Amino acid sequence: MKKKNNYFDVVIIGGGVVGCAIARELSKYKVNVAVLEKEDDVGWGISCRNSGVVHAGFNNKPGTLMAQFCVEGNKSFAELCRQLDVPCKKIGKLVVAKKKEEIKGLQKLKQQGDTNGVDDLQIIDLNEVKRLEPNVSGIAALYSPKTAITSPYLLTIALAENALNNGVFFFLNTQVKNIARLNNSHFRIKTNKREFTSSYVINSAGLYADKIARMVGIKKYHLYPCRGEYHILDKNVSWLISHLVYPVPQAGSGGLGIHITPTIDGNILVGPSNEYIRKKNDLSTTSQIMKMLSAEVREFLPLISPGYIIRSYSGLRAKQAPSSEGGFWDFVIEESDTVDNFINLIGIESPGLTAAQPIAQRVVEIINKKERLNLNSSFNPFRKGILRFEEQDEETKKTLIKQDPDYGEIVCRCEKVTKKEILEAANNPLGARSLISIKYRTRAMMGRCQGGYCQTRIIEILRESFKLSPQEITLKGNNSYLLTGYRSNKENESCKKEKLSLLEEGLLV
Ligand SMILES: Cc1cc2nc3c(=O)[nH]c(=O)nc-3n(C[C@H](O)[C@H](O)[C@H](O)COP(=O)(O)OP(=O)(O)OC[C@H]3O[C@@H](n4cnc5c(N)ncnc54)[C@H](O)[C@@H]3O)c2cc1C
After folding, report:
1. Which domains are seen in the chain, by residue range?
2. pTM of this structure
3. Checking CA distances to 436, which of 100, 173, 183, 407 falls within 20 to 30 Å?
4. Which atom of ligand 1 is nearest to the CA of 351?
């Protein structure tokens, strides 16, 4: 398969965790691949707004792709993270029964897990629950030692960077507007920027995959946004739990219930809620759901207090099941039966993060069956992430500062992120340089003060190091400008005078 100008063998629409995993998987072969992503960076769709759980696979109906790929994904996850230098910890999960009637639900889950091939599931009694989680109320639990946690955004970035290093082209800020089939052999893909042609299109557009399918006349898919809202708790209460703590899932619910999830970075998440909404871009958090989350979680964890919350956010599930039905429909991963070489990924909701690699392998299998792809002998599976200064021992820290004084300057005090890490993040191979791109790569602005201290300092570093004018610095690309320019000396003088008079009048302290 060969590449000419704007022609690619394969165009992947969507740079979420699944699109990036497909890109990496395809880069193991001699294929020219482009990823088109409408946002300023990869992973800003569903992939950065989830619980970050590497599920074991007992929640999914036996015989489904969801069950098969979840179990496979869980088993290969640690190795994937090792290759890509992404954190992953097997901390285990408890599905906790609060009353006797729920114990049947635990047994059903265990049976389902056993059938799906999940290892080491165990039903534990009250004493064992208390031993594992002294602060959690419940009478019994299903214990899943193989459930793990990861960083969903670092994984997406790492998959993309590794694919890029192995020859995949990434086009950010590139929104697919229209797709036409040329002479029944090639696709012409119109975007807001330029046109692409390709032999294959992989529709991995998450919540918008139904819209992309309609561009080539495939009308049978409908995706409904189902919002999940979360609270994020401060790191200083990470001692509250050490496992993932879930309720027994309710039949027909679009989610797994309000759970308590330790994150890989030491915070705790409370959520997500489960609410079908109308708009696919409505990422609001609402006071009503926020109150409900706090109340529900207190039934498991009475020690939780509103003062521990540092932020809230929401994510949108790409549901195939309409709200009248709820529950989970299986992943659709198939070549269209009406449009050759057009591969659809529909309804990639949870456990899509866990299953990203097996999903990608299935997509490559579909292409390989038709094309007999040649292996790329120079494929390198390894990628190095940004070194976290704070995680090093004292000796290493001293050596690092000697080698590069930028390690000696802490820019984000809450998360202890150095200037060196900010610069490395801003120099990332994908070329994404907004504040949100830096935040996801380093954790700067993710701590208790939420950027109150470091945001302006990061802007200053970007301005100085990359010779950017203030107007060029954005929060998240496109038109999300933060500053309008410099103040003139005259304006500065009049501002000083205004401040002085306010101080004199005692109106400013
Ligand atoms: C609340 C919640 C909790 C979850 N928790 C977990 C969990 O703990 N564990 C787990 O395994 N899974 C979880 N999931 C599921 C998981 O997050 C998803 O399955 C996964 O992120 C889907 O990835 P994706 O690449 O398919 O979609 P996305 O990440 O949405 O990627 C699609 C990309 O396509 C881009 N795009 C859309 N339209 C266009 C266009 N026209 N042109 C160009 N680009 C376009 C978007 O910008 C986006 O970046 C959760 C999901 C939610 C919502």
Report:
1. 87-149+224-314 (3.30.9.10), 389-472 (1.10.10)
2. 0.94
3. 407
4. 11
